[in-house]
Amino acid sequence: MSSLPDLYTLIQNIDAELLEVMRSSGPVDKRSIPEQEKLTKYILVATGNLHLAIAIDDLSEVGPLPVITFLPNLPEWIQGIVNVRSEIISVIDFAGFLKLSGPGVCDGNRFVVLQHRKQKVGVRLDRIVGTVSRTKTDAKPIDFFDSNPLDTSLFTAGLLVDNKAYYILNVRRFLLAPSLIDFRSH
Question: What CATH number was assigned to the domain covering residues 40-185?
Answer without folding.
Answer: 2.40.50.180
